[in-house]
Amino acid sequence: MSKHIDDQGRFQSDKYLNLPPDRIRLNFADPLVWPALAALAANYRSVDPAFADDIEQRLRTVRDEVGP
């Protein structure tokens, strides 16, 4: 078993112990997660266009705040 997999085979955050299993927390200010957030927006586009638009809008503005 790895560090983040519990005895039932579920992912468990070691940083955010209050998160339920199989959940992760993403921070818009972290450039490492920008590709994942962009992919999430693209995948949700057909299900919830407003959600996708809002993620993409925030990614544009946070890039200006954080920088390249």
Question: Summarize this, please?
Answer:
By secondary structure, the chain is mostly helical. It is built from two helices and no strands. The relative contact order is 0.12.
Overview of this protein structure:
The structure is a single chain. This protein is an all-alpha fold and 68 residues long. Helix content is 43%, strand content 0%. It is built from 2 helices and no strands. The chain has helices spanning 34-44, 49-66. The longest helix is centred in the last third of the chain and has 18 residues, at 49-66. The relative contact order is 0.12.
Please write out the topology.
Elements: H1 34-44, H2 49-66
Helix pairs in contact: 1-2
Short key terms for the protein model shown above:
mainly alpha; about 70 residues
> Strand count, sense and closure of the main sheet?
none
**Total of DSSP H or I helical runs spanning 4+ residues:** 2
What is the C-alpha radius of gyration, as a whole number of Å? 15 Å
Q: Which blocks of ≥5 consecutive residues have pLDDT under 50?
A: none
Give the amount of beta strand, in percent: under 5%
Averaged pLDDT = 93
* Global outline: globular
Structural class: mainly alpha
Distance between the termini: 37 Å
Order of helices and strands: HH
**Helix proportion range:** 40-55%
Total beta strands? 0
